[in-house]
């Protein structure tokens, strides 16, 4: 069986800086393994914040906002693996990534969890502080979407302040490279399992998380 792993990275930084450099490095690792790598830079997207409607838990339709978020979601659904990467801003996740998590998660992904059993990797970029907290938040988001999180043995935290500093963190980049290698290995293992058994590796359980809305009602609108 021959497959070409497809990985998409989500860059939550407002700048073409260290986070972008780390993802470009990760892409070179993936491409050496024959994988396809696609970049989604949130700074280049038309993305509105969550609006005042407040009916996300009740509506059976995807988000009513009209911007580029559904395009990004469709790329994630088509991929085998997704890397979430964001810098630390104000001791927390950069606002672009936070907005995307809210818009994509509540507006599109909660209907039937289409990212289930896709392979996830997480990278945080920080001067020194709160890298672990941002890494943990993005990891929990991947788990919420029932993804299979693959690490390097350590959280992938790259230390950088000024533009270009990410290239100097040898240990951080080593962890990033190892994570990408293991993501590709896992993608191959999952594909082999599906080929042999015709089934997903892990059960995803009840996909309907809309309280009070039966699954068949949701499916009529999807």
TrEMBL record:
Keywords: Flavoprotein, FMN. SUPFAM superfamilies: Flavoproteins. Residues 5-153 form the NADPH-dependent FMN reductase-like domain. InterPro entries: Flavoprotein-like_sf, FMN_Rdtase-like_dom, ISF_SsuE-like. PANTHER family: NAD(P)H-DEPENDENT FMN-CONTAINING OXIDOREDUCTASE YWQN-RELATED. This is Flavodoxin family protein. It comes from Kutzneria chonburiensis.
């Amino acid at each position: 069986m021959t497959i070409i792993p497809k990985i998409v990275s989500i860059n939550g930084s407002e700048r073409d800086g260290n986070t972008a450099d780390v993802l470009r490095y990760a892409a070179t690792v993936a491409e050496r393994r024959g994988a396809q790598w696609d970049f989604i830079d949130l700074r280049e997207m038309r993305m509105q914040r969550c609006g005042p409607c407040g009916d996300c838990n009740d509506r059976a339709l995807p988000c009513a906002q009209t911007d580029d978020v559904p395009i990004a979601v469709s790329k994630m659904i088509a991929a085998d693996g997704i890397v979430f990467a964001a810098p630390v801003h104000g001791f927390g996740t950069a606002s672009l990534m936070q907005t995307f998590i809210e818009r994509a998660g509540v507006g599109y992904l909660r209907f039937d969890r289409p990212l289930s059993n896709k392979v996830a990797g997480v990278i945080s970029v920080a001067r020194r502080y709160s890298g672990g907290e941002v890494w943990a938040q993005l990891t929990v988001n991947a788990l919420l979407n029932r993804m299979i999180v693959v690490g390097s043995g350590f959280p992938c935290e790259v230390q950088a302040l000024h533009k270009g500093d990410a290239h100097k963190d040898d240990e951080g980049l080593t962890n990033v490279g190892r994570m990408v290698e293991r993501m590709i290995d896992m993608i191959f293992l999952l594909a082999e399992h599906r080929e042999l058994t015709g089934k997903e590796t892990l059960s995803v359980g009840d996909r309907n998380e809309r309280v009070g809305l039966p699954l068949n009602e949701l499916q009529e609108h999807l």
